[in-house]
Amino acid sequence: DSASFIASFLGMSDAMIGLTIVAIGTSLPELVTSVTASLKKEMGIAIGNIVGSNIFNLLLVLGLTSIVNSVNITLSSYWIDLLVMLIFTGILMIFSTTKMKISKIEGLLLLSGYLIYVVFTIIRG
């Protein structure tokens, strides 16, 4: 309900709040886990956490949500977001195959891409 209040207050749709504020809030544990693992040079845990969390959210969370109540997804509402997700998944695959690591510069590019996406999402919101 607080997310809906924020959406109303900012003049944004619930979907846009979900794509930004709620997504950031629910992803903070993965961020902390992966950064901590990276600092300990436990890259398998860092990457596994990120990939596993995304698979869990996409398949299990969406699956259970759909069982509880049918989820209406209109492609016109989410096509840009799905396209961004697919493009950055492809970019991540390319980055991970070059020297089998993601460099600091590539990490900065990913971070910049996310910041641009959030700003764009808020503007269109």
Question: Could you explain the architecture of this structure?
Answer:
The protein folds into 2 domains: 1-72, no CATH class; 74-125, no CATH class. α1 (2-10) packs across α2 and α4 packs antiparallel against α5. It starts with a helix and ends with a helix. It has helices spanning 2-10, 14-39, 43-68, 75-97, 104-124. The chain contains 5 helices and no strands. 84% of the residues lie in helices and 0% in strands.
Which terms summarize this structure?
125 residues; mainly alpha
Report, as a whole number of angstroms, the end-to-end distance.
Answer: 18 Å
| Helix content class | over 70%
Q: What string, H for helix and E for strand, traces the elements in order? A: HHHHH
Count of the separate structural domains: 2
| Derived structural class | mainly alpha
- Can you count the beta strands? 0
Number of helices: 5
Q: Averaged pLDDT, please?
A: 86
